[in-house]
Amino acid sequence: MTDIKSLNLQELTAELAQFDVQKFRSHQIYKWLHCNGVFSFDEMSNISKEFRAQLEKEYYIPHCIIEEKYESQLDDTVKYLFRLYDGEYVESVVMKYKYGYTICVSSQVGCKMGCNFCASTLAGFKRNLLPAEIESQIHAAQKDLGIRISHIVMMGIGEPLDNYDNVIKFLSLVNDKDGLYISLRDVTISTCGVVPRIYDLMDEGLPVTLTVSLHAPNDDIRSDMMPVNNKWGVDTLISACKEYANRTSRRVSFEYTLIKGVNDNRQCALELAAKLKGYLFHVNLIPVNDVAERGNVRSDDEDIRKFQQILKSRGINATIRRTLGKDINASCGQLRRKRNEGDSNENCC
Ligand code: SAH
Q1: Which of 143, 275, 302, 331 is the most exposed place for a label (fewest CB within 10 A)?
Q2: What's the maximum distance between 2 C-alpha atoms anywhere in the chain?
């Protein structure tokens, strides 16, 4: 069986040429898949029953079925655990902002990167998501909530730049005027620092926003937290970001998760400020969201503010992230892990 939803219009038209149908049918089918976001051939009401039956035999539509759904009582955040065609699970979070709805999507089933504060990596890596599966998270959430999503952040389970080709294909599908037609300016790709792929992304010339999970100003601290740093160290990573900002004229953001006694002292802030100075950069300070097994402690509010102040006073744009969906464990990776362990309800709101 072939995944029909990961094909672009040109590929779909070439694929369907083997059937005895008019050419415009491929356009109709493409719109059903990407604009309407249907998960079954039966819903394609302007396609004949016979042709739908033929399609059903040869192709499948990689869907996202809602397995669990949590709605925050504190804000409008909704978190989903989706089941995929092969019984694997991924998570997505929909957040409401003044400018509209943003979805945080997963890019892989699990993660190989092994960051020591993150839940996504705990249940192990299974496979890459197909372009259609990344897109189907948006379709499933939009349909369920009756909304239109305008912004995407690739900060769910997985490392997007470790599933590079599928992510690039997903971006072209999601940006297509016959599909969801989401502007690439409203898409953020978050990476733990797969440096060669950051250079590849610059070459694509796409107007996406790059966010880098930095979390430490030097190799000593960062290598302890993030194994990827042993391959591409802090200075190599920041150089790539400088080039990204220069070549694309787009601001690069750094995520900096603050963990008490690990990376939140004055020295860290000073070192970070010195390394980022003079570029189109932004730092997002995030108090660590403790994952039970990890034992990381959230920095004190006072220390977070001091850290921000040091960056700001040295000309570095820095904000403290507002936590949405606090009551539903909105950071990703935890539901899938629980589900795999067979006690999925522990995190219920
Ligand atoms: N692999 C990508 C995207 C997934 S993680 C990346 O590393 O950027 C999305 C963001 O959430 C990253 O900045 C990650 O470091 C952060 N994160 C993961 N676990 C966290 C936790 N327990 N508390 C706070 N932030 C966390």
Answers
A1: 302
A2: 70
Element (H, E) at 12: helix 9-16
Ligand 1 centre distance from Cα of residue 169 (Å): 23
Using CA atoms, how far apart are residues 277 and 90, in angstroms rounded to an integer? Answer: 37
Token duo for residue 317? 């744009």
Q: What is the CA radius of gyration of the chain?
A: 21
Ligand 1 cavity residues, CB under 6 Å:
115, 117-118, 155, 159, 190-192, 213, 255, 257, 286, 288-289, 291, 331
Secondary structure of residue 17 in the 3-state scheme: coil
Which uninterrupted H or E stretch holds 332? none
Query: For 286-337, how does the pLDDT look when each residue is reduced to its tens digit (9 = 90+)?
Result: 999 877 677 889 999 999 999 999 999 999 999 998 777 777 766 666 667 6
| 3-state class (DSSP) for residue 45 | coil
Atom 20, ligand 1: which residue's CA is nearest? Answer: 118
Closest C-alpha to ligand 1, atom 14: 213
Give residue-wise pLDDT tens across range 143-188.
Answer: 999 999 999 999 999 999 999 999 999 999 999 999 999 999 999 9
